[in-house]
Amino acid sequence: MSVDTATVKRVARLARIKVDDAQAERMTSELNGILGFVEQLDEVDISGVEPLTSVVEQTMRKRPDGVTDGNKADDITANAPMSEDNFFMVPKVVE
Q1: What is the full DSSP assignment across 10-79?
Q2: How far apart are CA 21 and CA 28, in angstroms?
Q3: pLDDT at residue number 59
Q4: pLDDT tens over the chain, length 95 residues
Q5: Residue 53 confidence (pLDDT)
Q6: H/E element holding 83?
Q7: How far apart are CA 88 and CA 78, in angstroms?
Q8: Helices 5-14 and 21-42, interaxial angle, to 10°?
Q9: Class of residue 11 by CB neighbours under 10 A (exposed 0-12, middle 13-18, buried 19+)
Q10: Can you tell me the distance from the alpha carbon of 35 to that of 45, in angstroms, rounded to the nearest whole number?
Q11: What pLDDT, on a 0 to 100 scale, did the predictor assign at position 13?
Q12: pLDDT value at position 37?
């Protein structure tokens, strides 16, 4: 895959980056070099290689997933002007 100057200018316009003709020419050669490197990586045989999330083997620390009310309902509603059974009470706004 190769990139031409028109593609570079189009991508720059979509990214809202101002690019003149000289910069577009330079970017074209740079992007073609990057794409050439990516094509080289595509040739590497990775069959039988397990995907990694880290180079070092680690296990995730997990906590039990339990639903609680936080045991702080009284503290939360303590400063409310009006509350009942740990619920905030507000004036009626719809008739």
Answers
A1: HHHHHTT----HHHHHHHHHHHHHHHHHHHHHHTS--TTPPP-S-SS-------------TT-HHHHHTT
A2: 10
A3: 83
A4: 789 999 999 999 999 999 999 999 999 999 999 999 999 988 899 898 888 877 888 888 888 888 887 888 888 899 999 999 989 999 988 88
A5: 77
A6: strand 83-84
A7: 10
A8: 100
A9: middle
A10: 18
A11: 95
A12: 93
Phi then psi for 83, rounded to 5 degrees?
Answer: -150, 155
Residues 4, 31 contacting (CB under 8 angstroms): no
Single-letter amino acid code for the residue at 76: I
What residue spans define the domains of the chain?
5-40
Q: How far lies 44's CA from each of 5, 40, 54, 65, in Å?
A: 29, 7, 20, 41
pLDDT at 17: 94
Tokens of 31: 């992007």
Residue reference for tokens 């980056």: 17
